[in-house]
Amino acid sequence: MTGKIDGSGRKILVIDDDLAIRVLLQAVLKRMKFTVDLAEDGQVGLDKLKHDGSYDLILLDLMMPRVNGYEFIDRVRKEYPGQRPHIIVFTAAGKRGVEKIPADSVCNSILKPFDLEKFIEMIGECLVESHDGHGVLPPA
């Protein structure tokens, strides 16, 4: 399942209020040699983005307390203008929830519950798109 992607030297931020999903994704991604940071809501995710440096990819739940995924995307767009954020959103909110997001704000989206194989495939595709080395960067 995870043999196709080598995450060595790449950093992923997982933002989800569901501990089980954070732990599952962390375990899978670490097996693929990614460095993985976790955040339980969008505010913690924004803080990590600001203080812990750039990420090659952000995996983002939409429905969370405090700062939800929509607010996170909006703030990233405002704080990092001109940089295409490499974000995959996942949600139980259905297709209508995903349709509310500007198309140029995310790399891809998937509905919960998601197929892990398909999700891993999306991660690989988004990392190929971001291969130019530009992830979401902290302000200078």
CATH fold naming: Rossmann fold
Class inferred from helices and paired strands: alpha/beta
CATH superfamily: Response regulator
Oligomer: single chain
When the domains are counted, the total is 1
Rounded Rg:
14 Å
Task: Tell the overall outline.
Answer: globular
Low-confidence stretches: 133-140
Q: Main β-sheet, in a few words?
A: 5 strands, parallel
SS element count, helices: 5
Strand content: 15-25%
CATH top-level class? Alpha Beta
Order of helices and strands: EHEHEHEHEH
Number of strands: 5
Mean pLDDT: 83
Give me the side-by-side strand order of the main sheet: 2-1-3-4-5
CATH architectural group:
3-Layer(aba) Sandwich
User: What proportion of the residues is helical, as a percent range?
Assistant: 25-40%
Describe the overall structure:
With 140 residues, the protein is of the alpha/beta class. It has one domain: Rossmann fold. Helix content is 39%, strand content 17%. The protein has five helices and five strands; from the N terminus they run βαβαβαβαβα. The chain has helices at residues 19-31, 42-51, 69-79, 94-99, 116-129, and strands spanning 11-15, 35-39, 57-61, 87-91, 108-111. A five-stranded parallel beta sheet has the order 2-1-3-4-5, with helices on both faces. The radius of gyration is 14 Å and the shape is globular. It starts with 10 loop residues before the first strand and ends in an 11-residue tail after the last helix. Mean pLDDT is 83; it is low at 133-140.
